[in-house]
Design brief:
CATH topology of the largest domain in chain A: Dehydroquinate synthase-like, alpha domain
Structural class of chain A: alpha/beta
Oligomer: homodimer
Number of helices of chain A: 13
Largest interface: A-B, 37 and 38 residues
Order of helices and strands of chain A: EHEHEHEHEHEEEHHHHHHHEEH
Strand order of the largest sheet of chain A: 1-8-5-4-2-3
Number of strands of chain A: 10
CATH class of the largest domain in chain A: Mainly Alpha
Shape of chain A: globular
CATH architecture of the largest domain in chain A: Up-down Bundle
């Protein structure tokens, strides 16, 4: 397995950024940051002066209002179709910055420098860009590859444990859907002292292999969505509350629920369901969930659905995953019932 | 020259639409109209029931606010990634409907049925989609091809003469930049009685040939922008006034101005400049223009510019066009000066 060409692992992100930028020879460079990455990451980058565009951090700002502010600044800076936008941050910055760049004057080049574990293992490849709309996750967006992605695990050193956990849910997912051996490794990792370099590479290899065969998610790529039918709905629901869940926390809960549906569909034996549940519980709290009436309208908006039916990606044992499995309301109810019992 | 595969000339747009839709087998179909195309075109289409999404006509509505309304209705209708949006209308409906479809859930399929001469000869091919932003034309957008474009000149029969004129400016442009013989034909056409079928096909052949060699406008495709550096700026300026110009009127004026720059750069002999001016005057009024100080900031936002320089596409004689010609302020001033003298 070869990594996508645009992917650069680097222990010196500033040097790599300078090299990559020189090759693109843009007429103007701007860098998109939030208050955290400005302080924590940008200030440590030793690069020539660039224009800075700052937005407020957080999923709740992944909206058109923020896009409009960015486009406004890009316009004021006089950015042309030959200019370059560098997105320095986590998933919100990468997804939204990529979307903004890909639609500014019908598309300019952009470089993503993911600064969280989640964005390194997940958003770094696959070209999915977008923003939330009316509370629906990534409801508006497109597919477009960055000119480069620069991955430097050193950014993780200053990352809060909660942020590490959020990314780790996707690592667990990669193992569950594609690699039993990897699962045996990741199920007993000491988060703060993990060998992230190796884990990130392994996760990217898994994701890249899936994506390269189905870039626009017409088929197999849907397995990367295991845990996300419930996960996105739960994340969306909690976004509006006082205590929002991180993407990883929501996906972790989603994986427990969807593992139960896999079990109920006789795709996953009971002892494997228990094992998944225990591993997830080891890293994540299991919050109280609202009823199905609240979650269902959100699940209905999932991009995998078609013909008014709910389509899930379900585990076919550990290390394998089936997609486009039609799921009925009874399965959802009984998964939620099980979840309430075990938490 | 072969037409793009997705292009269907049809004397029976309803039958063609039904055939094309059946092949795409969407799970839900919605059709985007404005008050004019609903009345004038949709009501004459004999097709199975579809969901109707109606917006207000006009360039001033080609904004995010309208996009949000469309996305909202698409979401409420329960449209999935397997659904289809049909855009029935002129350039605004086609450009904005295509943009909305291409970004809804990261992109669903869409069919364009252009109903104006302008959208038949211009927007129908090339995949340029977008909306205006802060008064800047097509400032936000992307490239994406429709699943099908259905062209039926019969829609022109009920089109106001002003609308015919607006499209005819692009026809003149196609001749000027690429085909001297075609210029000899189109320079003496009786608009209401023209053989539109033939003209549309010829214009599309010219545009398709240019676009197929440079789909993302890195080079040669820029020649299609002759008349548009000034034209877009003028259109944008008048959009805010009581008497907005149509796209074609603005481009007609832009072609006079840019023909003068071509002459000044010794690319076009004086008698050819005069000829162009006379032909355009035959079809279009030449309105009073604001000074360069007003137009320059708008011209600076043109997508062909780079490195802070103004790049124009200029006629190299009639029937040929050069792109990426750097133009200085003196040339712009003297073109405006000339224009004020001759109008």
């Amino acid at each position: 397995m070869v990594f996508p060409e645009y992917l650069h692992f680097s222990t010196s992100p500033d040097r790599t950024l300078i090299e990559v930028t020189e090759k693109l020879s843009p007429d103007l460079v701007a860098i998109l940051v939030d208050e955290h990455t400005k302080e924590r990451c940008f200030s440590n980058l030793n690069i020539p002066p660039v224009q800075l565009i700052e937005i407020s951090s957080g999923e709740k700002n992944k909206t058109f209002t923020t896009c409009e502010k960015i486009w406004e600044q890009m316009t004021e800076l006089g950015m042309s179709r030959k200019s370059l936008l560098i997105n320095l941050g986590g998933g919100v910055i990468g997804d939204m910055g990529g979307f903004v760049a890909s639609t500014f004057k019908r598309g300019i080049q952009f470089i993503n420098i993911p600064t969280t574990l989640l964005s390194m293992v997940d958003a770094s490849i696959g070209g999915k860009l977008g923003i939330d709309f009316q509370g629906l996750k990534n409801h508006i967006g497109l597919f477009s590859d960055p000119a480069a992605v620069i991955i430097s695990p050193q950014f993780l050193q200053t990352l809060p444990r909660e942020e590490l956990k959020s990314g780790f849910a996707e690592v667990l997912k990669h193992a569950l859907i594609a690699d039993l051996d990897y699962w045996e490794t990741v199920k007993q990792i000491d988060l703060p002292n993990a060998n992230w370099d190796e884990i990130i590479k392994k996760s990217i290899v898994i994701k890249a292999a899936v994506v390269s065969n189905d870039p626009y998610e017409n088929g197999k790529r849907k397995i990367l969505n295991f845990g996300h039918s419930f996960g996105h709905a739960i994340e969306t629901h909690f976004l509006e509350t006082e205590q929002p869940l991180s993407h990883g926390e929501a996906v972790a809960v989603g994986m427990v629920l969807e593992a139960h549906i896999s079990f109920e569909k006789k795709l996953l034996p009971e002892h494997k369901l228990k094992e998944i549940e225990e591993v997830i519980r080891q890293y994540f709290d299991l919050p109280d969930l609202p009823n199905l009436e609240v979650l269902l309208p959100l699940i209905r908006q999932d991009k995998k659905n078609k013909n008014n039916a709910l389509n899930f990606s379900l585990l076919n044992g550990i290390g394998d995953c089936k997609y486009d499995v039609e799921v009925d309301l009874h399965s959802l109810t009984s998964a939620l019932h099980y979840y309430k019992k075990i938490r």
